[in-house]
Write a structure and sequence with these properties.
Length: about 400
């Protein structure tokens, strides 16, 4: 272990299920061989945070208390483990904390504390001109999008290709040589085919959606998307060639028309109604792969810990609707010949996608500007005491933005 400076740690603890955050002293994490310890400068809020806070008795039953939640971290490396080779003390980084996952330790690896441990393979150096607050929006959104697009169990697409600084033949993120050397950073690689495969991102203005649009574009696919009229230009700015209003009753007809018989590599479904819409679209275009990022029924009301209501009586009707909707969608997918699977955004920790995304694609893309830290960061406050209000604000709803707290 190499240290920058001794320090004391403080965390926002969840002392018991459905409690509110309580700030207090915490044990300073020591890095395992493949970890770094980061002085956290900014964290971002995800739906996962209020889902775990309010429903962990049903959805995260393995979680030990007191717990430290949070996944999205940006800060400075202050210590490194013995096997760390890519990162160094003093690096400005962004990373995905997976402490609430089964088999992990949230107090060691949760984001909502002033110092946390991150796996090197889920951490990337950020450019000097990228603020911690804006960088913090990336981790879970970009990881979930990458799992949807590139894991074989989902769409199984090729990754963006990496170009070299020397003009040598570049390689893709899997290490395979490609034919075009376009300078440092990311490239779709090779001459564009006459008819490129299509990826549809339903819910393109969400955090996962924005990252899916820009990653699929960087990988050389034609990206179609849906969003509100207010956010359509933002999604187009990330690479989508066409963006349609998801509330338009003719939206599927319009997507089918612009696809015009081309191969649909798959659909990434984010938001209410997206799963069923994706199945219908794939059934009409011959596609077979659907990656699902959202539950069919919102858990926002159930997860509201300010109500003082007990979880089980509140959750039963919602989870009954969720189960029924899931079963109906599964039947529809089977009948349409569609493989539909839910995305677990931190699963890239356990395969080679984590290192390829965080060690290669993301740092190169951020450095050369071909990838952006999206969505827009909205500062909700400073310090751990601001976290509960930030989580409550996120649960109430945000669009094309991500709520960030500065530490």
């Amino acid at each position: 272990m190499t240290d920058l400076a001794p320090a004391q740690n403080t965390a926002a603890f969840l002392r018991s299920p459905r409690s509110r955050f309580e700030v207090g002293p915490a044990e300073m994490p020591e890095p395992e061989a493949d970890e770094v310890v980061v002085r956290v400068r900014a964290v971002a809020i995800n739906p996962l945070d209020w889902v775990v806070q309010g429903t962990a008795q049903l959805t995260y039953r393995w979680l030990a208390y007191p717990a430290v939640l949070g996944t999205d971290v940006a800060g400075e490396v202050i210590a490194i483990g013995s096997a760390v080779t890519r990162l160094a003390v003093g690096d400005r980084v962004v990373g995905l904390a997976t402490g609430t996952d089964k088999g992990r330790d949230s107090r060691h690896e949760g984001a909502f504390q002033t110092h946390t441990a991150l796996l090197e393979r889920l951490t990337a150096v950020i450019p000097a001109d990228l603020s911690f607050e804006q960088a913090a929006v990336l981790p879970l959104g970009v990881s979930t999008a990458a799992c949807a697009l590139f894991q074989e169990r989902h769409l199984g697409l090729r990754l963006p290709r990496l170009t070299t600084t020397t003009g040598d033949t570049p390689s893709d993120a899997a290490g395979d040589a490609v034919s075009d050397a376009a300078g440092p950073g990311l490239s779709a690689g090779g001459a564009a085919p006459v008819e490129r495969e299509v990826v549809v991102v339903w819910g393109g203005s969400s955090s996962v959606g924005m990252n899916a649009v820009q990653l699929a574009t960087a990988a050389g696919y034609d990206v179609l998307s849906t969003a509100s009229a207010t956010n359509a230009e933002t999604v187009k700015g990330l690479g989508a060639t066409h963006v349609y209003d998801y509330r338009d009753p003719e939206v599927i007809d319009k997507l089918v028309a612009v696809i015009d018989g081309r191969t649909v590599a798959g659909v990434v479904a984010i938001g209410a109604g997206s799963t069923d819409a994706g199945i219908r679209l794939l059934a009409r275009t011959g596609g077979t792969r659907l990656a699902i990022a959202s539950t069919p029924v919102s858990l926002a009301e159930v997860a509201d810990v300010s109500s003082g209501r007990r979880l089980l009586p509140t959750a039963l009707p919602t989870f009954a609707r969720l189960g029924l909707a899931t079963a109906r969608s599964a039947l529809a997918a089977r009948q349409a010949g569609v493989t539909a699977r839910f995305i677990w955004g931190s699963s890239l920790r356990d395969d080679d996608l984590g290192e390829r995304l965080w060690g290669e694609v993301l740092p190169r893309g951020l450095a050369d500007g071909s990838l952006r830290a999206v969505p827009e960061a909205v500062l909700a406050g400073d310090g751990l005491d601001a976290l509960q209000a930030a989580v409550d604000r996120h649960r109430a709803g945000v669009s094309a933005q991500k709520i960030v707290v500065r530490l």
